[in-house]
Specification:
Number of strands: 0
Structural class: mainly alpha
Largest sheet: none
Distance between the termini: 31 Å
Shape: globular
Number of helices: 16
Order of helices and strands: HHHHHHHHHHHHHHHH
Radius of gyration: 21 Å
Length: about 450
């Protein structure tokens, strides 16, 4: 692909978003297979499947924390990279790429050391029971060795897409995920490694993805490359990167906080069964939200480039298109959950109690799922156009101001475990509409 082909200020905005979104969506869905395939295999382990899956669910907040730091640098850097390219300032764009690479390497080393040393106290804090702690620790003590692989593959892949190479970006995760699918049954069942086998398969696969990204971004095909001379950090640049990436950091960080609170509340009011159910529901949510994440993520370089090039009409057209696609998709997803909740639960567990009880919780959790589209679109526009404060506020508003208090309050006033699952649809309605309406009034109408 030539530089002319990656000029997002020319041609159909819809086609450009779709061209970015389709491979990105495929890549993100495939990325999920790293964890979702693990959960499916682990949930069906003979005799210990349910407890092992519960233990795996306890590790999610820590994994989200790693992803939060990836977003802090990767998302913020990609946004600035796209804006610089829109201004035709390729030197600045390449400096942002080099700085993000350095930041990801440094932060991955720090996170590994901290999390590995304190993993058992952290898991107990996150809601592990004495039984589920064993399986959570088995997974985490191996998974953490792949921290750098995870952060580099995910954090740098956006720079490939932002240069107009979405298919290459898609292959980043496809290669690793296919390898993970192949290795999982070999390690888990063939070599009888159980939970440890799932973790080992994951980090090997992530390592392959990271090598693919680095090979492309240091090779001749990339328009802008990782160079040692561009890695020198400056406080001003790091501050700008972190400011724009902070909304993504807050979203992932607050997801981790919510998961911790939910695990503890579910353990208190229901026990390991409901922690396991929440783990499965989280997997279903991740799968169903990936396509809309792909569309909104695919729109970011297009919106950011055109905003940097002062093509406001094209920015507005892109916002309208993403809004319509997001609303239609989340409506269809909600319908799917209502029609086959037990079948969705059965993918992850063979226990009838888990399937039947989980189906009811699934319907509560996904009620009004369409309102989540408004949150996705609003956040995407704020972030793509460099409006960090608004993006950060609405990340905090939905999770910290709405979900956390409701998760603590509703079970205590008589809703029991149902209250934990009910907090999500309430937050989608209030937070999603607030974010979208604010974006429409303060950004869209002024373009």
């Amino acid at each position: 692909m030539t530089a002319q082909n990656s000029d997002f200020s020319k041609g159909s905005v819809k086609r450009q978003i779709v061209a970015q979104a389709v491979p990105l969506t495929v890549a993100q869905i495939v990325q999920l297979l790293y964890n979702v395939v693990d959960r499916i295999y682990i949930g069906h382990l003979p005799e210990i499947g349910d407890l092992a899956l519960t233990g795996l669910g306890i590790t999610f907040p820590l994994i989200m924390l790693v992803n939060a730091f990836t977003n802090l640098f990767g998302t913020g850097g990609t946004t600035l990279f796209s804006l610089a390219r829109g201004r035709r300032d390729e030197e600045a764009a390449e400096i942002y790429l080099g700085n993000v690479f350095a930041l990801l390497v440094i932060s991955s080393a720090a996170l590994f050391g901290f999390c590995y040393a304190l993993r058992k106290p952290i898991l107990l804090l996150f809601g592990a029971s004495p039984v589920s702690l064993e399986y959570a620790d088995q997974y985490l003590q191996i998974y953490l060795f792949g921290t750098a692989f995870t952060m580099l593959a995910t954090g740098l892949n956006g720079f490939i897409n932002a240069q107009g190479f979405p298919r290459v970006g898609m292959l980043t995760t496809v290669l690793g995920a296919v390898l993970n699918i192949v290795l999982d049954p070999i390690f888990i069942f063939g070599l009888h490694m159980g939970v440890r086998g799932a973790a080992l398969a994951t980090i090997i696969s992530q390592g392959v993805s990271a090598l693919w990204v680095l090979r492309f971004l240091t090779g001749k095909k990339a328009l802008l490359r990782i160079k040692l001379s561009r890695m020198r950090l400056s406080f001003a640049r790091v501050k700008r990167i972190a400011a724009l990436g902070f909304s993504g950091f807050v979203m992932m960080g607050t997801n981790s906080l919510v998961q911790i609170i939910c695990n503890n509340q579910l353990q208190l009011f229901g026990g390991d069964l409901f922690v396991e159910i929440f783990t499965v529901i989280g997997s279903v949510r991740e799968v169903l939200t990936m396509p809309v994440h792909g569309v909104t993520g695919g729109s970011q370089p297009v919106l950011g480039f055109n905003y940097g090039a002062k093509k406001n009409g094209r920015v507005k057209e892109g916002i309208r298109f993403v809004s319509v696609v997001g609303i239609i998709y989340t409506m269809l997803s909600w319908l799917l959950v209502m029609l086959i909740p037990q079948q969705l639960m059965a993918v992850f567990s063979s226990e009838q109690e888990t399937i039947v009880t989980g189906a009811g919780m699934l319907n509560i959790y996904f009620f009004g799922f369409v309102f989540m589209a408004f949150q996705f679109v609003g956040q995407t526009v704020f972030q793509a156009l460099g409006k960090a404060k608004q993006a950060i506020f609405f990340s905090l508003f939905r999770k910290v101001i709405i979900v956390v208090p409701l998760t603590l309050l509703l079970p205590a006033i008589g809703f029991g475990v149902n209250g934990v699952f009910l907090a999500e649809p309430i937050s989608n309605l209030i937070g999603g509409l607030a974010c979208f309406i604010t974006m429409w009034c303060t950004v869209y109408r002024k373009l």
